[in-house]
């Protein structure tokens, strides 16, 4: 009573219904409601007929005309693109140009609920998966850019995460040479990397070259950001790795884990995998300033800008290891 009808919200209506028509029903779905019919009843697409009563769509007499019409359009586009590719091959153009394939980095497929709301008909997950598979096949065509408008009808734009992150600009030394610094972590290792532009591909890891790592897997992991961005042999990198505990202040009474009290303190040795992972992350973060935003988004999707937060799991009491149990013996 006394509420202005012009400024009444749905919450005010719900409170009024609860007060005027109290219900002791346990299920909330069985209680009285007063909402617009558009929110309660699902939307249905009305049949479209011409003046003579004939349906506009030739798929009207199927159980799901919108779904089957979309599937037909996908196959039709594939046939057109294949015919276009055959004509170019006959002219001698075997390798398609790079800009003829559609780029979908900043978008994603509509979800099952969104696709169901778009078709407004009976639609299950199995048909959703088959439709997405068919669209993926169309996207993988070397000349899929010709069907860009049709493909984007079933995708939604996603704001790139890299565009929301402030990438630091390049810095310049006294010789006017660009450089960038970054820090990366992996397990208990901290890596500080300096990337200098206009280089020749020199690698300095704790005063040594790439042979600092004994295993080929660690070497490939360190050089993967340079290979991915195409900056191999174009920049010089300097890497320093240290233990996480070396960055903290410890007293003589409470030394860090893995050290010995006395003048000859020895720190826990760092594993090569942890050092390679920390260097790769720091190197990837530093290379963001040397490439464009499109390449930064590709690096993010490839996982180069994501820190690996996994650590060694501690041993459990009553077990042989973190997960391994003791061998059970009857006697």
Description:
This protein is of the alpha+beta class and 331 residues long. 34% of the residues lie in helices and 11% in strands. It has ten helices and seven strands. The strands form two sheets. The chain has a five-stranded mixed beta sheet with strand order 3-4-5-7-6. A two-stranded antiparallel ribbon has the order 1-2. The radius of gyration is 31 Å and the shape is extended.
What order do the helices and strands come in, and which of them pair?
Blueprint: H1 10-20, H2 37-40, H3 65-90, E1 107-109, H4 112-119, H5 125-139, H6 148-152, E2 155-157, H7 161-164, E3 171-172, E4 178-186, E5 189-196, E6 203-205, H8 216-229, E7 236-243, H9 272-287, H10 293-301
Helix pairs in contact: 3-5, 8-9
Summarize, please.
One of its GO terms (molecular function) is structural constituent of ribosome. The chain is of the alpha+beta class and 331 residues long. It has helices at 10-20, 37-40, 65-90, 112-119, 125-139, 148-152, 161-164, 216-229, 272-287, 293-301; strands at residues 107-109, 155-157, 171-172, 178-186, 189-196, 203-205, 236-243.
Text of the CATH class of the largest domain: Alpha Beta
The radius of gyration is 31 Å
Tell me what portion of residues adopts beta-strand conformation.
5-15%
- Which ranges are low-confidence, i.e. pLDDT below 50, for 5 or more consecutive residues? 257-267
Descriptive keywords:
two-stranded antiparallel sheet, 331 residues, 3 domains, RNA binding, Ribosomal Protein S5, domain 2, alpha+beta
């Amino acid at each position: 009573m006394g509420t202005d009808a012009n400024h009444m919200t749905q919450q005010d209506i719900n409170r009024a219904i609860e007060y005027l028509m109290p219900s002791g029903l346990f299920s909330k779905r069985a209680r009285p409601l007063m909402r617009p019919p558009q929110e309660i009843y699902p939307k249905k697409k009305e049949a479209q007929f011409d003046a003579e009563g004939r349906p506009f769509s030739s798929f009207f007499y199927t159980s799901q005309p919108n779904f089957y019409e979309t599937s037909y359009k996908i196959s039709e586009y594939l046939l057109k693109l294949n015919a276009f590719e055959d004509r170019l091959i006959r002219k001698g153009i075997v390798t398609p140009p790079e800009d003829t394939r559609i780029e979908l980095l900043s978008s994603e497929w509509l979800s099952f609920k969104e696709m169901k709301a778009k078709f407004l008909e009976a639609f299950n997950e199995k048909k959703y998966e088959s439709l997405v598979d068919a669209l993926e096949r169309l996207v993988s065509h070397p000349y899929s850019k010709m069907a860009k408008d049709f493909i984007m009808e079933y995708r939604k734009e996603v704001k790139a995460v890299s565009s929301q992150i402030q990438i630091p600009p390049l810095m310049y030394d006294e010789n006017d040479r660009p450089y960038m610094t970054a820090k990366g972590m992996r397990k208990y290792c901290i890596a500080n990397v300096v990337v200098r532009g206009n280089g020749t591909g020199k690698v300095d890891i704790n005063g040594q070259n790439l042979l600092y790592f004994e295993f080929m897997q660690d070497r490939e992991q360190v050089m993967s950001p340079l290979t991915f961005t195409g900056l191999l042999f174009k920049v010089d990198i300097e890497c320093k790795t240290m233990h996480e505990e070396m960055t903290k202040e410890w007293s003589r009474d409470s030394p860090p884990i893995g050290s010995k009290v006395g003048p000859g303190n020895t720190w826990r040795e760092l594993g090569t995998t942890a050092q390679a992972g920390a260097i790769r992350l720091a190197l990837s973060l530093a290379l963001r300033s040397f490439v464009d935003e499109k390449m930064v988004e590709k690096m993010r999707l490839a996982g180069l800008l994501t820190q690996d937060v996994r650590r060694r799991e501690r041993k459990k009491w009553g077990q042989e290891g973190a997960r391994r149990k003791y061998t059970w013996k009857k006697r």
